[in-house]
Amino acid sequence: MLLLATHPLFPNGKLYGRILFPNQDMKIVNIRTKKFSWYKTDHEFANVIDIKSAEDYYEAIKYAQSKNLTCYTLGNGSNTYFRKKKISTVILRNCLPDFIRPAGEDLFEVSSSTNVPKLLRYLYSEGREGPFNLASVPATVGGAVAMNAGGGKTEGLFISRYLKSVSYLCNGKRIEANVSELKMGFRKSLFSERRDCIIISATFRFPKTEFISNPVTERLDWAREHQDLKIPNCGSVWRAFSFPLLRLAENLFRRSPAYFSKKSLIWISNKSTDHRHILKILRVVRLLHLIAFRKCEHEIRIVD
Questions:
Q1: Residues 123 and 181 in one domain
Q2: How many CA atoms lie within 13 A of 8 on its CB side?
Q3: Residue at which a domain ends, from 51, 77, 94
Q4: Are 198 and 92 a contacting pair, CB within 8 Å?
Q5: Count of domains for the chain
Q6: Bridge pairing between strands 86-87 and 107-111
Q7: What is the pTM of this model?
Q8: CATH number assigned to the domain comprising residue 52
Q9: CA–CA separation, 8 vs 18, rounded Å?
Q10: CA–CA separation, 256 and 245 (whole Å)
Q11: If we measure between CA atoms, which residue out of 27, 36, 37, 33 comes closest to residue 13?
């Protein structure tokens, strides 16, 4: 595959790099940016491809296979941690058309690129039930479905409660799957490990309801009080962990630029563009759990 390189500057000097042209239809961009993760760490990405159609996806997969590289589908980056300074993984940036389409009988087809807060504002305006506990989550619908976003185990409200089916691309073909086929679990799904797949759209059932107050603003008010929203973070880091071991690790990183949130122990707040501060926390937490023979599972997506 012949690659031709140019060196344009991106706006404001915040996003810059070179563009590689494998064919007339797809661009592979080399970028340095802090915008791909809500931790706001600085990285150099060697292979970034905007996915605007199924054809873009198929070409991107071919390119990755030709270079023996793995892929990662990126939405808003609200649960993504990049573990190295230079990222070789092919980043499939979700640039699919944004839409919310009523499909009759309380069903709605929603693009994977639609922002969750936008969907929830729409549901409120239409008098529809929905996962309003996600109002403060800066995720796309595709990302929320992929991780089965929701509250804690005690709250028990996840986006899969409303999900009926998903249309996605994987292994070079388009697949329509019912929710029962997606292995939805506690903050995970079939897509948690299948990083070469990209969700096109999801179909939900949002029944009619009446509101006595605005559930979006109520949740945002709750989040401001209980979550560190002003400091860069990716929300919950672990879905399986030992609370005492996290508390022990917290004491080790009180003076670190990356540290355990004061409002939620399973969040990492980050004030540095250097990803290594977060990596130290992840490694120490993993080591403590190994020593204590306790289960430790990441909820965030870790990409090299």
A1: yes
A2: 6
A3: 94
A4: yes
A5: 3
A6: unpaired
A7: 0.88
A8: 3.30.43.10
A9: 6
A10: 18
A11: 33
